[in-house]
């Protein structure tokens, strides 16, 4: 087989059912790791299910809202909903928690996380193309919709938390972007440039390279326990050149340095640290 | 007259103006019984009016949003808005509070509450049919839209409260469903099954039977001061079989028992009890 | 030149680029004056940019949502976004804060504020006409959309604040309307009446007179440091006649008097006073 055909064949992969399944598993397990999620699953299975659906289909929901298409459209994809609901059921209500125990096997986690990242590429590309069919050559709309489709669950996290009775207004993904949201934004920009033919690269090659990048860094961050974001130097440079952030007075500089350190660590494990920071901030605002 | 024709004739009833009027009266009086609503009516009549409209037309608004139709469409129905606004004016600003005093006469309350339940059936059926015209055979969309149309005021209660300057993120109708929201969900499922012809029953018969059920239990709950929800045993059984909720350890079990007791009591009179619970929860989350 | 032609020629003015520029400058400077906005600009330029776009294009966004048109449509207007983004960049990140220092020159502030008010008239008129093209003769929809288009930034302020990590549920523009929101509502009613031909005045004359009124009072309020709203007597009279607010018992009367005093002062400079009031209210609700 010709090696040059790999990207082309790769870009013709179907997401349903296996990659979608991986996305649902990774999303629902991430939901279960949120503080308070297990209590919600006991108090109100319905709120828990709805929250899980927002994790799984948040991108589709948000991009529908942005383009004034019916946001319930995702409910019409019966097979996907059934798959995601089964995953939700197994993750939260499996006797003896068998499902989650199996899933704590590291190679399986890595496989699922890698496959989830593949769906991200597909979603960004689909979002960009879909936006282009609504607004001709509106590259900012293409970036926004591609980003929303790829990182939807994160962007609507404030409202997803509200379903579970949690409200953390002092933070959101725009104020303190997590690594997946940032990398999705970069991906949306790249796919928009490619779609507008400013980027001299074939679509399947970009799909292939971007996915490889996503998977490698995801796996690396999981193995090394998320030490540093590969984007941190780029961000620091941009922040310095564009917004003069490095030239800020020492106190503010300290704060911004903290926040970029924070964003460079992985989102989930540092939850407790985050909460501490939030409490401090909450005190300040009071 | 042939007795078998009663359901058919019943299903041809027009909601406007009398049944709609009853719905508006019951909704606006329920708003006035909310804590702080009277103060809002003095501070800002406009916010009070908007809140009342959300109570009266919440279902229409929410189902429009879900199907990406203009959410302001309800404002185009001039006669309904005029009727609802008149009711709002009489309930909140009638000299000597004459309107509310008249309405405290129990038989009148029962009549109005019964008529309001009739409008619920009509809304669910209309919502299901409307969703079907957008998405062919997407039964989950039909359930969602029928439910939203029938129980809209409840489902958007967090945002309705926000209009009045109240924000209670620790609870919502998904996390702790009230009886009307639950029974509307069941109704939406039944009408969807009937519409998809899985339920071997004529539409007018289902309309008739479901409405009878709604009205009888509403009246019974008002007369007996809302002792137990007729759905509590069903919920307990489902919770046990599907989610193993009965098998949970004692502490969690106690919590879930409390919550099902809570949901089995009526929503309005136990407001103070609710608040007590919320404060405790708020303390826990701090 | 014939003096009678002035309104007609005035009503043919193009908003882009100069009047739109003034609107963006006034809006972004108002954002920068919000407490905490400068910290957000250091912590997360992206959230700051998005917040600025909500200030600049809030009306367009809100009216799109109301009519179920794509809310991202404003992103498709490349030139406007570029202009607004440049203004945002200069206001927040200009070295030595040169831009804001220049802008503190009073005659310039007055000019920009006056030009911003001109764009308000154009937006209201456009919103009313646009709503009429969707719903024939639905005058309430026309008022709502015209109002949303003209005062959008204010009406969505709760959600704009959320982007910056600020959440003040105890107040919103419906509960405590600021002067610009009120005067926009009146404008929306006038333009709707004119559009429905209940107001015997030519469109360009109404545009001219309403704009003159807006600009004069805006300039007067800036020069006199916003002593009294020109609408206060009208409001008091309406409140008395329609809602019997003057007849309320002394305590409530005191409160309502305070609130109308409050609304008659300008929105920005009394921020600290507002916050004090809010804290008191927050204590009460606790």
Automatic annotation (TrEMBL), chains A, B, C:
Cellular compartment(s): Endoplasmic reticulum membrane
Region feature (Disordered): 249-286
Coiled-coil residues: none
Membrane topology (UniProt): Multi-pass membrane protein
Domain of life: Eukaryota
Pfam families the UniProt entry points to: TRIC (PF05197)
Subunit structure: Homotrimer; conformation seems to be controled by binding to diacylglycerol (DAG).
Name listed for the protein in its UniProt record: Trimeric intracellular cation channel type B
